[in-house]
Amino acid sequence: MNGYNFAYLDEQTKRMIRRALLKAVAIPGYQVPFGSREMPLPYGWGTGGIQVTASILGRADVLKVIDQGADDTTNAVSIRRFFARTAGVATTTHTAEASVIQTRHRIPEAPLRTDQIIVYQVPQPEPLSKLEPSRAETRRMHALAEYGLMHVKLYEDIARIGAVTISYDYPVMVNGRHLMSPSPIPAFDTPKMDGMAALQLFGAGREKRIYAIPPYTSVKPLDFEDHPFRLTRAPHACTLCGAADSYLDEVVTDDRGGRMFVCSDSDFCETRQSGAAA
Amino acid sequence: MSLDALLSAQGLRLSYGRIAALDGVDAEVFPGEVLAVVGESGSGKTTLLNALAGAVRPDAGVVSYRDRDGALHDVHRMSAPALRALHRSDWGTVHQDPRQSLRMAVSAGGNVGERLMTQGARHYGDIRAAAIDWLRQVEIAADRVDDLPRTFSGGMLQRLQIARTLVTQPRLVFMDEPTGGLDVSVQARLLDLIRDLVARLGVAVVLVTHDIAVARLLAGRIVVMRAGQVVETGLTDQVLDDPQHPYTQLLVSSVLHA
Lengths: 278, 258
Fold this sequence. Notes:
- The complex is a heterodimer of chains A (278) and B (258).
- Chain A is 28% helix and 18% strand.
- Chain A is built from seven helices and twelve strands.
- In chain A, helix 1 (11-26) packs across helix 2 (47-56).
- In chain A, 45% of the residues are buried.
- Chain B has two domains: 7-90 and 170-256, P-loop containing nucleotide triphosphate hydrolases (Rossmann fold), CATH 3.40.50; 104-169, no CATH class.
- The A-B interface holds A 143-144, 146, 148-149, 151-152, 155-156, 158-160, 224-227 and B 80-81, 84, 103, 106-107, 109-110, 113-115, 117-119, 122-125, 127-128, 145-146.
């Protein structure tokens, strides 16, 4: 296949990553170190997600790649083409047809099924990174489940601004045990992780960490009893498909203040539009 | 160990190379009392404090802690999670430099509330009310609750640290030179506050200080250390008014009277 091993990585590397994945699935939310490889694209472009996808991909899989919800953005197009060339697998833009979905910054609007796997690209796997600079200390905090510090951050937000201001990468407790970064998905998507039927895998290439949420695992956003987690969403309907419950992107249309709100999930939006036309 | 002692140390030995920082030290702390450890720099006071708190493991000797249910725990044989749990529930620490324990980028209220949140408090309103109540108890105006510690004076920082430590109602607090580096009038006010809080809450304190006057004001009992050994121990007034050991006599006579 063009001189590449199937799905680019050599088999030994894939086995190493699969072992890390098995451990990650066994301890939901725990960050498993792995020997992240150099990939033919820069850190921050999804090297962690690509390595995970390469390790789980089989010849019969159908791959979908999204970036900010869209199938047609640079990152999504290039990663999809990368696997089409190095693994020769079928690709799709339809959520329902995919068996493996690699994503950056979104979870598809359509509910995922047990026969699907979603792979997240993660820039910073450590949810406490901005609060505690020492990695030795954050590892100890995870080991002892000492997560008061994260609540201090939420306390500070409410005391100063009146509400929790984390709008993406909202910290969650997985399986009632590990504090986890859900990757930079909007807080709007966080509830979709809770009890999801699909297996969720997370890869951080630069930080060399893999973690996972097995199907039907509890994922709860951190909050206070008297300030419960609340969904925030732009108060509009999608200009193209009229959806009032999807996550929206604000698109500037001209230089005179014109703008519109459209679904960030391009497949969801197109499916609705074609359904309305039919 | 006495039947009613809260914390007891027996035969503590620890050397740093050839220097014996602790050379066979015994000590006991009883519920609700303030025990002062005095001595000159390098006498082993802080090492003793760290050994009692489980932060430094002695070469020999045992430190035992009696918990709320009366069960004894060997502090240096506890698992790390158990010791940390003890440090954030039953125990507290007040450092000489409040910046060591305070989070300078977090508001006063967040600093006081952190121990509550670490213990599992999840009600914002309750945490905030407790924080404001404790700021009041250490004489910091309630409207400073959302201010950052870096806008506080040295004395206020120390009082904030005390509020942060006492908010979970510990049974035993370790204090290392709590009034060090403060000017005398601020020191006097802080000592008043500590004495008042300790008496009201019935919390036991191990107080390390080089300042005899601080020991006399706060402590019921005193331990005088020199070169890693306890040279004299007893009731504070008794030891300071009628020192028996030559070193204690020297220490007491070195104090300047204004």
